[in-house]
Amino acid sequence: WYQRRVRARNKAKTKVYAIVFNVLQNYSTLKKIAEAADLDSTPLVCVHLYELLYRGGLKTGGPLKSKLMKMLPTLRTLKTKHHNTSNYARLPLYVRINTLSAPDPPAVIRQLRTQFPEFCGDPHVNLLLKFPANTNFSRCELYRKGHVIIQDKASCMSGAALNPPPNSCVIDACSAPGNKTLHLAALMGNTGTVYAVERDGKRFKKLQGNVAKHGAGNVRPVRADFLKISPSDPQYANVTHILVDPSCSGSGMVTESLVNNFQCKNEKKTKQLADLQKTLLRHALSFPRAARVVYSTCSVYSEENESVVKEVLETHSEDWELVKVLPEWGRRGDNSVFARADSCVRCAPQDQTNGFFLACFVRKVKPKVKPTVKPKVKVKVKDREFMGGAKIQSVFSVRHLTMRYRVKHHYKYPYKFVRLY
């Protein structure tokens, strides 16, 4: 009974989350419809308009329902007029070709053309395709077989910034659900090893399912807390590339209209998340053979982005440096937080992506210093008589005013060393 109650409660939470997310995604359009119909553009009215115009009916009662039902023809006309007029109402749908299970991308593109004629390639991320926002892939055979993966453009940028070469040893510190992990595995050509670390049990099962479905043979799912993995563990001794994409506020997943109209930032939670992010990033930088570490979030708050990078860099500047990645991307970090922030990458809805941030750390190459050794002093002397006619052969070295001679053919001390002071 208790388990059924918990499942029902979780199902209700999921439905509420879906409604809130969809309302926020279409908030600017719903607000314009309410204003044009002389209604109060409050969040409650927008929720009712979404249920009526996008989900086919209202399940709630009261005077507001009666008023909206009388205005239904007018509201439908306004929806047609204002739908998707906002720059942030809908983002394009991005689909990445999965070379792990589809080794022939041109053939995949030709097959997609027969079902979806309107799409184009992305100029920044290789094998990423851009589709209209309302494209439905649920019946696409390529999607069902795992030959293509629905993944936002900003999410693909962390893999492009890390860019591990084939046969590398990589850790994805916070892996689930696994889209970034699969991208890293594809960039490596299904060679080497990608340790996909995830501590949550449900998310770990989802990660395992995605890895198996998409043919990632070089991915090793690891159910563990990344902070409890020791850098001295022999299993991870050869790790050279690490991706740290920790839990964050998720503020970048919300459209700019939400940020402007709802001040929902929780300062206490944001600080707690930032502290966790710093700990995870510092732990990644402590791996002895790590040469490249990428830190990324889907947050728009500088406390989780530039401030984290600044504080970690201050304590690790002796061994690590911040490098500029994806130089062709225009939107950079906030230089008002620290001077090197332009080396970081930011994404925003104006770029037709979700809000995103990434920074790349590279280990400094220290010059090798040869140990200073005092050179041996060579002394050459002529053979001369010594100790009753014995011949001195040659001088080997002079150290601390001590000369060693080898005495040749002496009747009393044959082949002995004699020290002269």
Describe the structure.
- This protein has 421 residues and is an alpha+beta fold.
- It has helices at residues 2-25, 27-36, 43-54, 63-70, 72-82, 105-115, 141-144, 153-162, 179-187, 201-213, 256-261, 267-285, 306-316, and strands at 93-97, 120-121, 128-131, 148-150, 169-172, 193-198, 219-223, 241-244, 292-297, 320-323, 345-347, 356-363, 385-386, 390-399, 402-408, 417-420.
- Strands 5, 6, 7, 8, 9, 10, 11 and 12 form an eight-stranded mixed beta sheet that branches.
- α2 (27-36) packs across α3 (43-54), α3 crosses α4 (63-70) and α12 packs parallel to α13 (306-316).
- The longest helix is centred in the first third of the chain and has 24 residues, at 2-25.
- It is globular, with a radius of gyration of 33 Å.
- It starts with a helix and ends with a strand.
Strand tally is: 16
- What share of residues are in beta strands? 15-25%
| CA-atom Rg in angstroms | 33 Å
The helix content, as a percent range, equals: 25-40%
N-to-C CA distance:
99 Å
Instruction: Name the assembly state.
Output: single chain
Judging from the principal axes of the Cα atoms, what is the shape?
Answer: globular
Secondary-structure-derived class: alpha+beta
| Largest pleated sheet | 8 strands, mixed
Number of helices: 13
Q: What do the pLDDT scores average to? A: 83
Low-confidence blocks of residues: 85-89, 255-263, 377-421
The topology string of helices and strands comes to HHHHHEHEEHEHEHEHEEHHEHEEEEEEE
